[in-house]
Amino acid sequence: MNRRAFLRAGCCGGLASISPHAFADDPWQVPPRFSRPDAASDEGGLWALMDRQETRLRRSPFNLDAPELRAYVQGIVCQLAREHCPDVRVYLMRVPNFNANMAPNGMMQVWSGLLLRMDNEAQLAAVLGHEIGHYMERHSLEGLRAAKSSSAIGQFMGLFGVVGLVGQFGLVAGTFSYSRDHERDADRIGAQLMHEAGYDVSEASKVWTNLSLELRANPDASAPNPLFASHPGREEREATLAELAARYKGGETRETLWQQKTAPFIRGWLADEIKRGRPEQSIALLTRVATRSSGAADYLYARGEVYRLRAGEGDLDLALTDFGKAIALGSEPPETHRALGMIYRARKRGADARASFERYLQLAPQAPDALMIRSYIEELSA
Amino acid sequence: MRLILALAMAVGIAGCATRTQVLKVEPGEQVVGDRLAIKVDGPWNHISTTLLAPAQAWTMEGFPIDQLLIYSGVKDGEPVHPIASGTGGKSFNFRSNMQPDEIVAMFEGALTRDGSTFKLAKLEPSGFGGAKGLRFEYAIVRKIDNVQLSGVGFAAVDSGELFAMLYSAPRITFFPRHQQRVEEIAKTAKVRARPAGS
Description:
The complex is a heterodimer. By secondary structure, chain A is mainly alpha-helical. Chain A has two domains: about 5-255, no CATH class; about 265-380, Serine Threonine Protein Phosphatase 5, Tetratricopeptide repeat, CATH 1.25.40.10. Helix content of chain A is about 60%, strand content about 5%. A three-stranded mixed sheet of chain A has the order 1-3-2, with helices on both faces. In chain A, a hairpin with a 4-residue loop joins strand 2 (about 100) and strand 3. In chain A, helix 1 crosses helix 9 (about 180-195) and helix 3 (about 65-80) packs across helix 5. Chain A is elongated and about 75 Å long. Chain B has a single domain (about 1-190), classed as Protein Transport Mog1p, Chain A (3-Layer(aba) Sandwich). The interface of A and B includes residues 60, 94, 163, 220 and 272 of A.
């Protein structure tokens, strides 16, 4: 599910029009494991197509080289999917956008941009539980059958991020989503699965709230978005998720474990976020996550770097402040000193620039730009 | 990068019906955009298109296998590979006060709008076009087909204008095949004085 699809899921799924199932007295029952459909059926064809795409996905250079993290996320999936666990295969992809999706053959993609945005294990479980809900209810098959034209089928395939088939997943997937009823069901099922796996269901609404914060920071946010024109608003979504949380009380966030497991990857994901070219959204994100209990120096450096690269009115001063705070905290990335040096050099503060560059090379002697930085030091020494 | 692929498709399927033309670049001195003179030791193919403006796009093997992008006199504020208005994509504009890392970041942004990844392998000072400039090496994983590309770039800012050359090709076979030729072209680059009155 991409960012828009997730929002749409929220908009559609949670709203005032609460599903007849949503607060039914009888809990939803996990269906038995699915057997492989007949190859001659439409569902069999869909599975075969997804199998081929999974082969490509497995070999993709975008696959995150992180077997331990993958095993950890697979473990979360197994807690949620229970007897369906052997049928679900998780792929972590290094793509800096918010996205997770699950194909009917059990292929599940989770993008690094989503992982960066999760504050704890429960939040990830909320997203994964929602996707597993679609899978268990076989919504994709209904979606395929509802897609009458070839272009609609193409958009439908885009929902799973089919590489090469429709190419630009981020663009295409935003134009197709499950039906409102499907999203509503997936929300309900996801919340139940979260609860039964021991997670704090109230974290589900925070995923939405946090993402909404980023979207509102977008300078174009005030412009009407045709994709959302027919969807209810954020407040209704939050109300529905709050009602689900009230129904499913208790549970854990597993924040500490989450932060331990993701810590080795945070710098790489932040580097990708800086490069995403969406400074307003990145600043909103980084301002929020800088309050996390660990990694603050990395987040402050990243926000400062976003300011520095945006280079708008006052941005360099904000960058200097963030870099200073990161260094004061200690364990700052070496690039903090390079970025400081760049600003000092531009401001003709030669001694400060030189000291910053020297510190950078001391911390990162093998950096790809070491030769360029040495040339700056020589220039500043002359 | 998506533009390049779209361009390649346009060239491949509609060679006679679009504004895109493939022109032969003869060996010898070539002047790109009136300002950047280079010498080539063999023929290249010039893909005449506005899709990669302000770059002039050359290829040896054909798009999208390899591409040599040549930028001559990009002005302060001018976008690199501008996007159509209303598409929501980010614009990457040259600023005359950009530092080397910012120039690399600008190209990186313009080349990875489609979600391709870019990894800087080396950035070093280097003359280009007769001015003090930079040379950089990079790797790209192209999102649309997962092909891993290698690239080398040269750039310099002269009188507030950007002059640059970027070459990329699949890291296996094609990039090694042509890298040295591109390096030699870069060595011959010379920025010419702006014509009087312009």
